[in-house]
Write a structure and sequence with these properties.
single chain; N-utilizing Substance Protein B Homolog, Chain A; mainly alpha; 7 helices; NusB_fam; 147 residues
Length: 147
């Protein structure tokens, strides 16, 4: 199961990266991107949920990342780091079945594989600050859609 989730997060990162670089905001285009990837049927629902969740809640997610990324404007972050953070924050806010510490650890590991040597520390610092400030109960007063 853990291997499927890692593969799903990496696939979600690929799609979120493409969305970010291209400035895509339409769900239909995102769904077409997902279809074009020919993902394994076992990870497709996981990837779709993450990508659409990040897309629909991007404003709230980016607001949190911006608030806790000391001396770093979100627009100055690398596309990879920014989207690793978005996926982890989405999990921390909206997916109660995924422990927040697991979301952070996965983000760090993926950053070590796909970003710079310093990204793991950078991502850990931001996500840990967010984790400490979040209410214990998920979705406490948070909007679920920023359309």
């Amino acid at each position: 199961m853990r291997k499927i989730q890692r593969k799903g997060r990496i696939s979600a990162l690929i799609v979120c990266y493409q969305i970010d670089i291209r400035g895509i905001v339409e769900e239909e285009v995102v769904l077409n991107l997902l279809e074009d990837m020919h993902l394994d049927k076992e990870i497709y629902p996981f990837v779709e949920m993450h990508v659409l969740g990040v897309l629909r809640n991007k404003n709230r997610i980016d607001e949190l990342i911006s608030r806790y990324s000391i001396n770093w404007d979100i627009s100055r972050m690398s596309y990879i780091d920014r989207n690793i953070l978005r996926i982890a924050v989405y999990e921390m806010l909206y997916l109660p079945d995924i422990p927040r510490v697991a979301a952070i650890n996965e983000a760090i590991e993926i950053a070590k594989m796909y970003s710079s040597s310093e990204s793991g520390k950078f991502i850990n610092g931001i996500l840990d600050r967010i984790r400490k400030e979040l209410p214990c109960e998920r979705n406490a007063g948070l909007p679920t859609n920023n359309k």
